[in-house]
């Protein structure tokens, strides 16, 4: 079997997320610049939410989930929060493509914990569920058909490793 390399890079592209952020920012800007405050110190108190909103903007613009599966390992990162993590196939018990509901099963998208496993997603309904000896986590994917090829390669590796 020839080596197949699965690569995927995801970002938060949902229009509703950006619409909410732009709306809240617009309201905050309106409040800060167009509503007169009786005390000068109140302006600083109104500016704090705006600073927080700009930090959220910066974070969402930079958040990037990168997944790579080659013939011997799985690598992923959720920059800038999680640096690259690498798992050799020997250390992975199972990987399977699943369909899930991010909102119901994990309480949303991003980096989530549901008392059973971690979830690293940017949206969508498909994910790669990975189980190791002591960890279980879900990596969201927008390319389920391509991911399936990589998981077949993983299954082939496991069958050769346990068959010999």
UniProtKB/TrEMBL annotation:
Keywords: Membrane, Transmembrane, Transmembrane helix. The chain crosses the membrane at residues 15-35, 47-65. The keyword Membrane applies. It comes from the Bacteria. This is Bacterial Pleckstrin homology domain-containing protein. The lineage of its organism: Bacteria, Pseudomonadati, Bacteroidota, Cytophagia, Cytophagales.
């Amino acid at each position: 079997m020839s080596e197949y390399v699965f690569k995927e890079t995801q970002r938060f592209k949902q229009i509703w997320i950006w619409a909410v952020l732009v709306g809240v920012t617009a309201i905050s800007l309106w409040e800060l610049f167009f509503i007169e405050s009786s005390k000068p110190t109140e302006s600083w108190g109104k500016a704090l939410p705006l600073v927080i909103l700009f930090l959220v903007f910066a974070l969402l613009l930079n958040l990037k989930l990168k997944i790579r599966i080659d013939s011997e390992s799985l690598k992923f990162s959720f920059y800038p929060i999680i640096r690259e993590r690498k798992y050799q196939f020997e250390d992975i018990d199972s990987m399977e493509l699943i369909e899930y509901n991010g909102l119901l099963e994990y309480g949303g998208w991003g980096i989530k914990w549901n008392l059973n496993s971690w979830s690293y997603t940017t949206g969508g309904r498909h994910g790669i569920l990975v189980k190791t000896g002591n960890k279980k986590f879900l990596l969201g994917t927008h390319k389920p058909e391509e991911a399936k090829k990589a998981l077949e390669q993983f299954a082939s590796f496991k069958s050769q490793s346990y068959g010999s």
